[in-house]
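Try this one yourself first.
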């Protein structure tokens, strides 16, 4: 997964990573928000979900201490990272800013 993860974040398009856990209630809320964000940005950005329980090494590598944590990468560079639930407009504007 780590090799694949590197390929994903090295994209020319911005990639929003949703670090989540299946047992996390706020993560479920964030997931439905991300569905709308995806509709808003279309092909301009990718949204990828990473289960921190399945991939703890990746979560640790990027300093994920709580879920949900969102991170935006472009060309392999971490551009933005925050924990907590974020709204549709904030995330849509964030991704469009990096397109």
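Now uncover the answer:
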């Amino acid at each position: 997964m780590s090799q694949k993860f590197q390929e994903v974040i090295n994209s020319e398009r911005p990639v929003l990573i949703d670090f989540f856990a299946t047992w996390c209630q706020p993560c479920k809320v964030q997931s439905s928000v991300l569905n709308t964000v995806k509709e808003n940005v279309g092909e301009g950005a990718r949204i990828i979900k990473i289960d921190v329980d399945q991939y703890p090494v990746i979560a640790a590598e990027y300093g994920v201490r709580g879920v949900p944590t969102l991170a935006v990468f472009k060309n392999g560079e971490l551009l933005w990272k925050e924990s907590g639930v974020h709204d549709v407009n904030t995330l849509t504007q964030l991704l469009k800013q990096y397109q």
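Discussion: The radius of gyration is 12 Å. The longest strand covers residues 77-83.
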